[in-house]
TrEMBL record:
Keywords, comma-separated and alphabetical: Carboxypeptidase, Hydrolase, Membrane, Protease, Transmembrane, Transmembrane helix
Gene3D superfamilies: 3.30.1380.10
Chain segments annotated as transmembrane: 40-62, 118-136
Lineage per the UniProt record: Bacteria, Pseudomonadati, Pseudomonadota, Betaproteobacteria, Burkholderiales
Protein name, UniProt field: D-alanyl-D-alanine carboxypeptidase
InterPro entries: Peptidase_M15C (IPR039561), Zn_M74/Hedgehog-like (IPR009045)
Length: 325
């Protein structure tokens, strides 16, 4: 192969390697780039910045210090020049001249500090205070903005402020006797739907959830069971076992007036089954709304109860009979 052709091929290979070099270096470059210095470095840079600013300001506004500094710098440069000039005669002479110049600068600064000790001390204190304060407060939460404790929902604010909501008109009894309803909830006919037997605080939260579901999503809610006596609770456990409830007497918030089972009302009929897509969507919205007003939704349990909500009122413990009504 001719020598010129070999040279041309080698040149082309070198050019391709050179063009690929930036692509090979990109991962290393990306690893070396750090957009922000770590916090310990910031603690060091902050006082250095203040000291530099103070030194420059002092140099500009104090003629005596400026004169001394310039004289020292000139001496330092002169010593350096002499050291370079005599470098062939004396090894390290330039180092000695440079150190001598630095010594004279240090002497000038030291003399100025001694003659203006109180001014210097005041400047150092002022410069050090921000850094010292930041260091001492590094574990304090003074500058951590707390979450806004005000409820953004105006309706919930009104409820907590004392607005009293009124229960809806009672649903006709025959609405609870349809085949669909009885098949899903056989004992619903004898269930209590008396709003007055519910805890007042829980009642207002539940009514607010009803109102939000109606006003925001167009769902009409219906109470299918509220307060439940301990005898009825035990009866449901004995009849249905774990497929109906896991709780015996005084093990459910129903006995305290702090729980309710709910469904939807559509065209005058009770809709319970989540197999209806409309009802399933309603239960999902209902769960979100219930949690917004501070209630616990049964749809998040292992044994899901989509229509169930309860209020874990402070001070109420399951297992003990509630106070007389």
């Amino acid at each position: 192969m001719p020598i010129g052709h070999c040279t041309l091929l080698r040149f082309q290979e070198l050019r391709r390697e050179f063009e690929a070099l930036p692509l090979l270096l990109q991962p290393q470059l990306r690893q070396k780039i750090t957009p922000f210095p770590p916090r310990p470095l910031l603690l060091i840079l902050l006082p250095v910045y203040f000291l530099a600013a103070v030194c420059i300001s002092a140099w500009l506004f104090f003629p005596a210090l400026r004169t001394t500094t310039l004289r020292g710098l000139r001496a330092c440069l002169h010593g350096l020049r002499r050291g370079v000039a005599r470098s062939t005669e004396r090894a390290g002479g330039h180092v000695g001249g440079f150190l001598g110049g630095l010594g004279r600068v240090a002497g000038g600064v030291s003399g100025y500090v001694k003659s203006h000790r109180w001014q210097t001390a005041g400047v150092l204190i002022v410069v050090s205070l921000p850094t010292l304060f930041a260091f001492l407060m590094r574990h304090n939460h003074t500058f951590v903005y707390e979450a806004d404790l005000r409820n953004p929902n105006v309706q919930i604010e009104a409820l907590l402020a004392g607005e009293r909501l009124v229960p809806p008109p009672p649903v006709p009894p025959e609405a609870f006797t349809t085949a669909e309803v009885v098949m899903i909830r056989p004992s619903i006919v004898t269930a209590s739907r008396d709003w007055e037997l519910l805890d007042p605080d829980f009642r207002q939260r539940l009514l607010l959830a009803y109102q939000i579901m109606r006003d925001e999503y167009g769902y009409q809610m219906a109470l299918i069971e509220g307060y439940r006596s301990p005898e009825r609770q035990q009866e449901l456990l004995d009849k249905g076992g774990s497929t109906v409830t896991h709780a015996g007497a005084y093990q459910s918030y129903h006995q305290y007036g702090l729980a309710a089972d709910n469904a939807f009302l559509r065209d005058g009929k009770i809709v319970i089954s989540e197999k209806d897509p409309w009802a399933l969507r309603g239960y999902q919205l209902y769960g979100e709304v219930a949690e917004r007003v501070g209630l616990t939704w049964g749809g998040r349990w292992k044994l899901m109860d989509l229509g169930h909500v309860e209020y874990h009122k402070p001070g109420v413990k399951l297992g003990a009979p509630p106070p007389p009504r």
